[in-house]
Amino acid sequence: MGKALTVTTTVFSFVMLALTGCSHGDTELTEPGVTTRALPAVDDVREVEPWGPAGIDHRSITAGGLKRNYIVSMPAGARQRDRLPVIFVFHGYKEDAEKIRKNSGLDAADAIVAYLDGKDSAWAPAPYASTSGQQDLAFVDAVLAELEGEFSIDRSRVFAAGFSNGGGFAAFVGCQRPQAFTGIATVAGAYYQRVSAGCSQIPMMHVDFHGTADKVIAYNGGQRHATAYDSVEEMLNESASRNHCDARHEDIEVAPGVIREAWTGCDAELAHYRIENGPHVWPGGAGDSSGTVPKGFATDAMLKFFRLGRATQQ
Hints:
- With 314 residues, this protein is an alpha/beta fold.
- The chain has one domain (55-305): 3-Layer(aba) Sandwich (Rossmann fold), CATH 3.40.50.1820.
- 25% of the residues lie in helices and 25% in strands.
- It has 6 helices and 13 strands.
- The protein has helices at residues 2-22, 97-104, 133-150, 165-176, 232-242, 297-305, and strands at 55-63, 66-74, 84-90, 112-116, 153-163, 183-187, 205-211, 222-224, 227-229, 247-248, 252-255, 258-264, 270-275.
- Strands 1, 2, 3, 4, 5, 6, 7, 10, 11, 12 and 13 form an 11-stranded mixed sheet that branches.
- It is globular.
- The termini are far apart.
């Protein structure tokens, strides 16, 4: 008992001595040469920047020796978020970026969407284009580089979509830039035969939409501007070969008069929506008064195919 009492008394005395030392402002219990720093009253944590609103920006850029114009649609938080997908959208002949923006409704995508203006309202390599394929590709390259420098984009989710002449150009971009683009969507596409000339054989995701009553770019192919263009079947056969597909699935009616065709065993997905009695329009878009498909049909199916969501408003 005496030994235990001695130890306890010694420890108590040491603790009291330490506390007494701390009570004197001129007494420091630090090692020589060590500088002390007062802790902040509040944790020094960087404040999270709030998301900016969704927005639209009209821009110009010089590429391929030409001044070019385009529109960028940005989802909420575009400058605060990481790894955003990008969709390039190309208008039809004698149209412009603003028209395809309104008709497609792709502003709704949870992605950065770039609507590009074709020079003289056209895209190469169509016979009426005033630009070369290389000039239009340089435009695409320049816009992609600019977006990549401004935003955090996901290079594994860069897509191209287009209508009519723009659909043919989207296919051309997919052929010529397979390492920059993940997939393409073609709507009533004009597949002039130069579109697939020298096409890369690297597989490319592809979803296509075309109405059987299209009187501008016929479903079964034809000729315009003294130049032949491929039928939908010819174009799909080329895509199936490129994507190393085995066979076609059983066709599925996904809406009244709308047949979805898909292929199996592909290295990259391939699907086609055949719209019975569908005219030359973006199916379900703002400019589609045919009533052949539900509102927003092609855009919804396209985003689903690309595994992209719709933007949420902040």
